[in-house]
Amino acid sequence: MTTLSSKILSQDKEHFATLAVDAVMRLKSCVKLNVGGLSVHGVVMKYGYDNDPHVLSGLISMYAEMGFLNGLKYLFLGIGEGDLVSQTAMVVGSAKLGDIGFARKLFDEMPARDVVAWNAMITGYVQCGEAVKGLELFGEMEMMGLKVNESSMVAVLSACTRLGALDTGQWAHRYIESKGLKVDVMLGSALVDMYAKCGDIKMAMDVFMGMEEKNVYTWSSAMGGLAMNGYGKKCVELFSLMQQEGLKPNEVTFTSVLKGCAVAGLVEEGVKFFGMIKEYGIEPQAEHYGCMVDLYGQTGRLNEALNVINSMPFTPHAGAWGALLKASKLSNNVEMAALASKKMVELEAKNDGAYVELSNVYADFNEWDSVDGVRHKMKSERVTKVPGLSVIETHA
């Protein structure tokens, strides 16, 4: 009788495990497709699979991808303490959805924390704009003797990139080498991005050229870095080299190469690349249109820049009008500059900066009556000018 019961129990466990794995796979599909998640959760609860740690982790990831912070907190209340896998998933999900305070509370209450949990919390701080806290937490993690891995250093480099902290980024690079960490695609791309955005384009390209394996993000980071640092033609050359390698460009790649064209004043090339976007099955985004406005504007072709704005399949964003304004001022075209400034005011009615910009445009062209008109408009809209602040980074 005991043998028979054990056999049945064993079969039940195997059956449950199979169904649990199936539930996890379905949840992953829901995350990728962003559909059907709530229905699968209902089925999971109906058959009691939501107690399985891997299923629970899948549910947490699903709600994080769907942007349902309340759903995450509901799950948290239902699981009690949970295990390390589900606790870490909760930290990752909460941080990803911007509730960094809740994520830190969960993190601090965890009875045990592995490197995955620490990396999740550090990354959360960086993504929420608190890069300094992320670096501080990394320091705590290292002092505790935890083994730092590639993901840890990607988070550290991202923090350095956000802060523009080249010195700290260089230290991180030396640290990676001293620990013998493998510079894989993710870590290599993070290094390229950090060096490029912190202004050391030579080192960025040295890292790029030394990488054994590169993906589309690596190439895009290198191109974006070249454009950002004024090497427009080199950016375009790198795009051609990427095509020769047979890699398919993505949205970020086209943004990078279009910025390169704008920097170098390569209008014909820019028009060609903009036309290629749809050929790769990508719908041009606001940033792509903004790059084209900048490209035409920087070469003095203001009417064509305005035509790009008017041809956008969505409401033109402030960045596009800002690019036109900048170009109009360079070309001393007061009418176009005033138009661009007015559009920025319409889009950002409560932003004092837009009004100040419009006022400055009129002042640059000695149209003092119009300057007064802008000031009256600000008063009627109750827009107040915020005093400027200076931020000074100090190093010990």
UniProtKB/TrEMBL annotation:
Alphabetical list of Pfam families matching this protein: E_motif, PPR, PPR_2
Keyword RNA-binding included in the entry's annotation: no
Gene Ontology molecular function, alphabetical: RNA binding
Superkingdom of the source species: Eukaryota
Keyword Repeat part of the UniProt annotation: yes
GO biological process: RNA modification
Keywords: Repeat
Protein's recorded name: Pentatricopeptide repeat-containing protein
PPR repeat boundaries on the chain: 114-148, 215-249, 250-284
Species of provenance: Artemisia annua (Sweet wormwood)
